[in-house]
Design brief:
- By secondary structure, the chain is an alpha+beta fold.
- The protein folds into 2 domains: 2-52; 87-220, Nuclear Transport Factor 2, Chain: A, CATH 3.10.450.50.
- Helix content is 40%, strand content 22%.
- The chain contains 5 helices and 6 strands; from the N terminus they run αααααββββββ.
- It has helices spanning 2-18, 22-52, 94-114, 118-121, 130-144, and strands at residues 148-151, 154-163, 169-177, 180-183, 197-209, 212-220.
- The strands form 2 sheets. A 4-stranded antiparallel sheet has the order 2-3-5-6, covered by helices on one side. A two-stranded antiparallel ribbon has the order 1-4.
- The longest helix is centred in the N-terminal third of the chain and has 31 residues, at 22-52.
- It is globular and about 50 Å long.
Length: 222
């Protein structure tokens, strides 16, 4: 039906054009082509990107590999897998310490979306980083109660590492975090929603032990 109407309108336009003087016919045709070109340009530049983009208008969590991704959520597999440690995060350099901290937040996002805390335990020594162990214990308690965190995704804005006089590394980081809800086994929210954080600054203290980084401690900026 749409095609029929389009053909009918085209025939009407051609009949109307044929009645015009010859010198006006050329003007009308050129003007029509110009309008068509502008319309096509507007669609390609302003409309098409929005129709085919998968961004959805929002940002995605930063991946330590340098790509924007959903941490640990492998689209080709039904079971989520933890993000791999980037090769750069194995280097005993300031750049390596920075990449490791970014990777830490990839793991945090993975843990919150899967309830698999095992990868997080590989990033610290529980005898040294007491705060790290408390975070893991709290999450395991949430799991035992049949609850799940919803939201709370971390986004790394900036990270900067400096080697200290003791040979350890101090890494400052600025992050955003989505609002967080705790959901019980029936899908109901437990307690109040934790509001989102923006431009929150914190510090990590790292030590390179036996060929890999280990978190000694962390703290939020005063």
């Amino acid at each position: 039906m749409v095609v029929v109407v389009g053909v009918f309108r085209l025939l009407c336009w051609v009949m109307w054009l044929d009645r015009l003087p010859t010198r006006w016919q050329s003007v009308v045709v050129v003007s029509g082509l110009a309008v068509l070109v502008v319309a096509v340009w507007f669609f390609v530049v302003h409309v098409a990107p929005g129709l085919f983009s998968d961004e959805g208008g929002g940002g995605r969590p930063f991946s330590a590999s340098g790509e924007s991704s959903e941490p640990g959520m492998a689209r080709s597999s039904a079971k989520p897998t933890p993000p791999p440690l980037p090769p750069a995060a194995r280097e005993q350099t300031e750049a390596g310490a920075e990449t490791f901290v970014r990777y830490h937040f990839d793991i945090e996002n993975y843990v919150q979306h899967t309830n698999d805390v095992a990868p997080a335990k590989e990033l610290f020594d529980p005898k040294v980083c007491k705060g790290c162990q408390v975070v893991v214990d709290n999450h395991e308690m949430t799991i035992k109660k049949g609850r799940q965190l919803q939201g709370g995704t971390y986004y790394v804005r900036s990270v900067e590492a400096k080697k200290t006089s003791s040979g350890d590394y101090l890494v400052s980081v600025v992050i955003d975090r989505d609002a967080t809800k705790v959901i019980d086994s029936e899908g109901k929210q437990v307690g109040a929603e934790i509001p989102a954080d923006f431009h929150e600054r914190g510090y990590f203290y790292l030590k390179y032990v036996e060929g890999k980084w280990s978190i000694l401690d962390f703290a939020a900026a005063a």
